[in-house]
Amino acid sequence: MICRCETITEGEILDALQSEIPAVSIDGVKRRCNAGMGRCQGGFCGPRVLELISKTRGIDPLDVLQDKAGTNVLLCETKTGRGVQPWLNLLSSAAARRAWRRRTARGSMACAIF
Questions:
Q1: Measured between alpha carbons, how far is 50 from 27 in angstroms, rounded to an integer?
Q2: Phi, psi of 78 (to 5 degrees)
Q3: What's 77's DSSP letter?
Q4: What is the sign, positive or negative, of the torsion defined by CA atoms of 19, 24, 29, 30?
């Protein structure tokens, strides 16, 4: 059971991801099988749906989109194998910092801990 609110199973999500016209984003899965439409609005199942999309499509979790191009759910890794690296070091240019502020103000980006 992936989505407890809407009782959506992993098989239903995999069917949506492997259909003739596959869902390629979190919103695509949401539209096809209602995962993330329940009371928690994807708070519990969202990370698991992201993981399934990443594994099924063979892409990095950082490349999984919420909906359209540029709507990445995850921005960066907050930990690396060599220890903790501050995310501010990843935003070296002023343009990248402005884009980060705009996106986080809308609540569309987050960092992942791997």
A1: 10
A2: -95, -15
A3: E
A4: negative
Instruction: Report CA-CA distances (Å) from 56 to 11, 24, 51, 52.
Output: 12, 10, 8, 6
Other beta carbons less than 10 A from residue 2's beta carbon = 23
Rounded to an integer, what distance in angstroms lies between the CA atom of residue 113 and that of residue 87? 11
Q: How far is CA 78 from CA 63, 86, 95, in A?
A: 15, 7, 21
Say how far apart CA 53 and CA 26 lie, in whole Å: 8
Note the pLDDT tens digit of each residue in 14-42. Answer: 999 999 999 999 999 999 999 999 998 98
Q: Is the pTM of this model over 0.70?
A: no
